[in-house]
Design brief:
This protein has 127 residues and is α/β, with parallel strands linked by helices. It is 45% helix and 20% strand. It contains six helices and five strands. It has a five-stranded parallel beta sheet with strand order 2-1-3-4-5, with helices on both faces. Strand 1, helix 1 and strand 2 form a beta-alpha-beta unit. The protein is globular, with a radius of gyration of 13 Å.
């Protein structure tokens, strides 16, 4: 079982309302949470302090989630960091590419309740 106080989750989501909601859900559950609103901001933040888990939107302006994964080099440079990609789009090609770039899980935003989000986060951290 993971000690939530030692877990930092970075929420990477361009829609501020959703980002705020995810942060509230995760903080209420006891996690330390940081937030970025595009892939470039996430790269900059992750370079300063490596998160335990990244909750990553695939579709964002400036730099999308796939480009973030390409540049972050998860498998090569950050193999201990877990990544859950999420999107409103169920596009298999993007999902497959995210997995090939090191993502651990994929969830469809529209179907993820707060309880389901916490379950996926907990399961991913435990894996």
């Amino acid at each position: 079982m993971t000690n939530k106080q030692n877990v930092t989750i970075m929420v990477v989501e361009d829609e501020r309302t959703l980002s705020d909601a995810y942060q509230i859900i995760l903080r209420t559950a006891g996690y330390t949470v940081t937030a970025a609103h595009d892939g470039q901001e996430a790269l900059d933040m992750a370079a300063k302090s490596e998160p335990t888990l990244i909750l990553l939107d695939l579709r964002m302006p400036h730099m999308d989630g796939l480009e973030f994964l390409r540049q972050y080099k998860l498998k090569e440079k950050h193999p201990k960091v877990k990544v859950i990609v999420f999107s409103n789009y169920d596009m298999q090609k993007e999902i497959d590419e995210a997995y090939s770039l090191g993502a651990d899980r994929y969830i469809l935003k529209a179907w993820a309740s707060p309880k389901e989000l916490l379950q996926v986060v907990g399961d991913t951290l435990a894996a």
